[in-house]
Amino acid sequence: MITDAFRTAGTARTCDHRRSVRSPVGSAFARTACSSPRRRRLRSPICSDITSDSIVVQVSENTDPTPAFDAQDFRTVLGHFPTGVTIISGTDEGQPVGFTIGSFTSVSLDPPLVGFLPMKDSDTWAAIERGGSFCVNVLSRDQADLCWQFAKTGNEAERYDDVAWHAAPTGSPIIDRAVAWIDCNIEEVYEMGDHYFVLGRVVALEADADHDGSGPFPLLFFKGTLGGFAAEG
């Protein structure tokens, strides 16, 4: 997975104690679903449920709790699935924060929902969570340097050195020249293994491309390396 690959490339993040979820303060967009994101935990691995009457996760009773592979096997095989590269941005006490994420996905059209999976020990995620909103910046193939810059540990503000950006409706940074951006309020946060699954409700979005497919191509991550996309035909 892209986040694990960055960690093994010398970009492991410093662990911190988990912070409680807070409702957004001073956000330009009021939360429409609830006053703050709700934290939910997956419980039993067999026919377990999330703490909601409407959501049930079922796993086969034949599931072997001890896999016949190690973490490196898992990373290697999953690395054969190419992904796009995003920078998830936000603000913390008025300061821009952000990190590189490959595990981003569309979730629902109605209502418009997207999601991503940060590591539980990520200080950057804790900062974004406090702000209550985030913006997904889909990087173009000429922004590989930003991919690595935002994967580094260290001072959050330094990640934005020499990076041109402007504010999304929620106040989260939109990085200039990104292929697309999706601005969201945090809707729900689920605990899943060593990651969280963050569900966001989309409040605004835009793509730097025409409907015929012309425009900048995205940056791709495949088998531990970055590359571009070339259309056939």
Explain how this protein is built:
This protein is an alpha+beta fold and 233 residues long. The protein has a single domain (2-11, 31-223), classed as Electron Transport, Fmn-binding Protein, Chain A (Pnp Oxidase, Chain A, Roll), CATH 2.30.110. Helices cover 14% and strands 31% of the residues. It has four helices and 13 strands. The chain has helices at 2-11, 71-78, 123-131, 144-149, and strands at 38-41, 83-84, 86-92, 95-101, 104-108, 113-116, 133-138, 165-167, 173-175, 180-192, 195-207, 220-222, 225-227. Strands 1, 3, 4, 5, 6, 7, 10 and 11 form an eight-stranded mixed β-sheet that branches. Strands 2-12-13 form a three-stranded antiparallel β-sheet, with no helix packed on it.
In short:
The chain has one domain: Electron Transport, Fmn-binding Protein, Chain A (Pnp Oxidase, Chain A), CATH 2.30.110.
As a percent range, the share of strand residues is 25-35%
CATH architecture: Roll
Rg from Cα: 18 Å
- Overall SS class: alpha+beta
Are there runs of 5+ residues with pLDDT below 50, and where?
Answer: 6-35, 43-52
Mean pLDDT, all residues = 78
Q: Please give the count of helices.
A: 4
The total tally of domains equals 1
Here the CATH topology equals: Pnp Oxidase, Chain A
Strand tally: 13
Largest sheet: 8 strands, mixed
**What is the class in the CATH system?**
Mainly Beta
Percentage of residues in helical conformation = 10-25%
Give the helices and strands as they follow along the chain: HEHEEEEEHEHEEEEEE
